[in-house]
Amino acid sequence: MPTTLADAQNLVADLISRYSSRVDYLMIRLEEAEGTDILLRGDKVETLSEGISIGGHIRACYKGGWGLSSFNQLSTIKERIEEAIAAARMVGDEETLLAPIEPVQAVCQLPLMGTDPRKISLSQKKQLCDRYTQLLKSVDPQITTTSVRYGDSAQRIIIATSEGTLIDQSWVDMEMRFAATARNGETLQTGRETTGSRKAYEDLINLDEQVKSAAQRAVAALSLPPVKGNTYTVVIDPILTGLFVHEAFGHLSEADMAYENPDLLEVMTIGRRFGPEELQIFDGAAPTGHRGSYFYDDEGTPATTTQLIQDGVLVGRLHSRETAGKLDEAPTGNARCLNYHFSPIVRMTNTWIEPGKTPVADLFTDIKEGVYARNWLGGMTNGEMFTFSAGEAWMIRNGKIAEPVRDVTLSGNVFQTLADIEAIGDDFYWDESGGCGKGGQNGLPVGCGGPSLRIRDVVVGGEV
């Protein structure tokens, strides 16, 4: 791997100039990554590894057709370029439409605010996981299963294109996941917590209360009554708001979903009203310090902040250069790939709903019978339909938080749910626990956030 931008330029400049005339667009991406992966299930070590990978890929476009060839030996790069060009020329039969961007030459590194995890030994990281495992188990004898996962990765990416862009960008990412399952006879309940950081290893070492809370929720849920399935007015906390805006709305804002699906493109018409005038939704990698933040995307487009919904009306969507070109819109810097094995596709970065003006306590006012849901256990989306499981929940009775309940799932149509937002809280929380999956590229770091929301007519699953 070249050690400086000048070395990278020496490596790729001749190759770019030699081959670029045979295609409309050519990009060489070099990547060096190192990381740690630890997984403990109970006291059993399932994964304990450190690894380094070096590789790259070639992307070529000719008459709208793309060729991709990846490699992990620099000595084969010429053959891989030939393969990518041959593939592009074989399938290209239209017009190459890439929204223009200014070529840039830059060296940039996302700054750490504390200790780099690469300076921490594998044994220390394992000891941290052991400590959290013991914390989970110590909460209650009814805890029967625990899992603790630690992961960190440091990536350095060099991108060179036939348009003159040459970028050397690097960052470090960290994540931990905790789960505890409690059993009482045939009843099982699970609590989960996830956290991540692009700032410092220190962000992972003082999580005792957060870790214990996962086990405590699992134990407490054993003795709770299940919620009675019905349609309720629901208040959700900022963590569930972040999950909702990412999973249910964010993916529909990714322009490759729209231009490949005429029906969805018609639904996601710019200028269409989706929610109340108070609703503001954004996505962007430009805000610093979050897990979806960077300076340039994997096509060399500068990071931006894109407003998706303004005053309840759809005003934007997320783009790669190709989707922006095909829809005649501006690129937004949302082309991302997990690593050099994949081609960049349109992905979210940091997605959030802006806080509103309603004090959180007032969100519960006048709700005769409803549900207050916090945190999350899991969820799934299918097009515009979603189902999420809450980590913990309470009934709302006569405007007050009442008895806790379990097995709360929230389901609905995202467009109807946005329209049914009755009030937006004045609080806000950034959730850095996200690992997004799309197109086989799973675990891409993202951030999401938002305020508490009050939503009417939400289908809540539970005991009928």
Automatic annotation (TrEMBL):
Q: What region holds the Metalloprotease TldD/E N-terminal domain?
A: 28-88
Keyword vocabulary terms for this entry: Hydrolase, Metalloprotease, Protease
Superkingdom of origin? Bacteria
* Limits of the Metalloprotease TldD/E C-terminal domain: 231-462
The record's section on InterPro entries has: Metalloprtase-TldD/E_C, Metalloprtase-TldD/E_cen_dom, Metalloprtase-TldD/E_N, Peptidase_U62_metallo, TldD, TldD/PmbA_N, TldD/PmbA_sf
Location of the Metalloprotease TldD/E central domain: 116-222
Identify its protein family.
Belongs to the peptidase U62 family.
Q: What is this protein called?
A: TldD/PmbA family protein
Organism of derivation:
Nostoc spongiaeforme FACHB-130
